[in-house]
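Record type: ASSEMBLY
Status: queued
Input:
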Amino acid sequence: MYRENEIMDGIADEKARREADETGDLIINMGPQHPATHGVLHLVVTLNGETIKKVEPHLGYIHRSIEKMCESLTYRQFIYVTSRMDYLSAHINNHACALCVEKGLQLEIPERAQVIRVLMDELTRIASHELWWGAMAMDLGAFTPFFHAFRERETINDIMEETCGARLTMNYMVPGGVMADIHPNFQKRVKDFLILYKRKIKEYDELVTGNIIFQNRMKGVGYLSAEDAISYGCTGPTARGSGVSCDIRKLYPYEVYNKLSFDEILETEGDSFARYMVRLREMNESIKIIEQLIDNIPEGDFQAKTKAVLKLPKGEFYTRVETARGELGVYIVSEGGMTPYRIKFRSPGFSNLSALDHMARGSKLGDLVAMMGTLDLVIPDIDR
Amino acid sequence: MWSFHNIANFVNDWLSQTFNPTLVTIIEMVIVGVCVIGLFAVLGLVLVIMERKVSAWIQIRLGPNRVGPKGMFQSLADTLKLLVKEGMTPSGADKFLFNLAPYIAMMVAMLLMAPLAFAKNFQMWDMNIGVLYITAISSVSVISVLIAGWSSNNKYSLMGAMRAGAQIVSYELSAGLSILSVIVLTGSLNINKIVLSQADGWWIFKGHIPVIIAFVIFIIAVTAETNRAPFDLAEAESELTAGFHTEYSGMKFALFFLAEYVNVFIVCAIGATLFLGGWMPFHIGNWQGFNHVMDFIPSSIWFFGKTFFLIFLIMWFRWTFPRLRIDQLLNLEWKYLLPISMFNILLITAMAIGGWYF
Amino acid sequence: MSGEELKIKIIQLLPSATFEEGGEFLNINVEAKDWLAFAKQLRNEEALFFDYLFCLTCIDWNTHLTMVYHLTSTKFRHNIVVKIKLDRNNPEIESVSQIWRTADFHEREVYEMFGVNFLNHPDLRLLILPDGWEGKNPMRKDFEDPVNMIKL
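Status: finished
Output:
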């Protein structure tokens, strides 16, 4: 039934070829090597002229079966594999796994570790949204924003490098806290970043948001109603652009999020522009959170005392966190051993992608690229 | 004073004294042919490095900086690389048409150079229908794009070609109408006469607001006609990978690439000639002293300065704006630009009849 | 609705359902044959309104397979977990992709990884794995691939 080889050759068989000839449809393969898919996503798009009739995602080009891999890794080890899922919010992935293990162990985390974790999460979120912003503008044919976004993102990466020792897959979270204490320069550099960011964020609006071509490309395109967003399991900014309240940080607060004041950004239009605005405004909320915490990092341990070998009690544990893309669920089934019996990552990109076909039907090919941009797809996150 | 005109005359005189008239014509044609090929290559290289430097400047990075002083020989090195690269033809392609298309693109770009006035009294062919010739030849370039897209046996290429066809055919209308507005004012299709008519001021200053509108429409239309962003739907690398030249590689791709840049140069040269006075220095009415000072700057510098200013403008567009969608592109032309330029040309005609311009 | 209220309500809807204590969510064990009707009730019942299927997965227990559905309501914010035991040799269950459309992709993933056959699924074919992997079910515990798998 899976016709990938035939699709690669052109149109599947004589019957399908005849069908396409009769209806005048054009079947094109977007990806796995395509500039707009940001990775190895393969979309089989059925077109009538420029109008999309069907979008069919074919996944698995970067499937590493992380879930199976985790079954043979200990509770300390498996966290680091998850950095490779959604590599743009690696911290938050690690955080979700660490939380799930801590839930199983019923560990109490020192407050300093909690604050550091939240700070790192929010910095990651900003970095991820910066990259999304640049990449999405590039999908629409504007190259310059990409470089402007990377200017700020590099600053965050430098901060990460100083404290965690890595720029992309940080592997900073451990069960019970964080791996090492923050670098002495950390607070100063984050404050410098805040000043820089506030100066530069206006450029984003000038360059892209206010542009009339950009608004015409985004408004009224890729509509997703609130009911559909829930039904398709969309989360994160994708669902919040449709007016669905789904911020895990607000609904099921973890760490110190319930002590912080920040808003959940909601837009009700449900089109590409709403999703764009949600992400853009969300960056400001992250800045607000960082501002509240950066001067109030409590003294104390950065890690709780844990045993050398972690063993979760028999049972099932589920945690969810808000990554830059939406709700990441970690579901661990434990049999009491050193390794998880079964682990399931409910990744946000996988569900968000499933709504793409629904959104794209009837719009133009150029809009498909814009929609994919606003869904903020990270392919390893979808394939896992 | 040193000028292109003197050099050309000197060569012509020397040849006339040495050879018989038939041979002189043949030799001059060969010289012009070599010059055009040389100019084609040099312009391509210069514009590519200019584009890369301008984009680097806009995008807060350095751009090419390894080959030669400040990376100025980068495009030369690229050309060398493209020359020795294997020119592949896909197995399913129509081989003859596939290989023909880049040469059509190149030939069109070369032919368009003939009537351009590069400096005072320096023109390859001072024909009396210069502007008509340019509009006629430039519409052939769409054929090369269509051939390239169709013969590649690639759906992306085909879609790019179809987009290019729809786009170029529609934007030629408003480009033609805005060119027509200057012709109405000068009453001549001859490039040289159009330039001379601007001796007391460029048309963009003399012609009030209608000519400024025509100029703006012209710039938009030629940006679309040369397939440059924000109208680069034929290539649209984030949608169609590379559009009509997806399957091209090596020198055949380079020809498309160079032809695109030379086309940009040519349309900007036309824009500069029609609206900004071509090689005519900046003159203001009867200010004899001021005009005289301006005349000291050589006419070729005026021409290239204006042309490169317009090229910079078009590059600036490319690195600032996102791309339009195909239906928005056609709406812009048929619903806005075309009616506006139609009305505009009526205004300009009334202006020309009444003599209401400086 | 709290856990106890949910329990009462669900017992009314499906008397054969059993509950499992422990864990943060209310766990409900359901028979495979009751699932589709029960799912429709969970989705459509005004007081329950489980409109958001946030996790769908399968666990291989060597003796049997267990389908796990995590459901929540965006209106009332209550969560339940539905578990359904399946025969390991011939796992079959009704698809819920008509009720929660997110199940479409998740069920396809479970189909290829565990070999669970979803009845009345609109488009049940391999999603992640390439051609030639039908029936191999790599996420099952007894799956062996000497070439590509590294034992730790």
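Annotation: Residues 3-151 of chain C form a domain with the Beta Polymerase; domain 2 fold (CATH 3.30.460.80).
Annotation: The longest strand of chain C covers residues 52-60.
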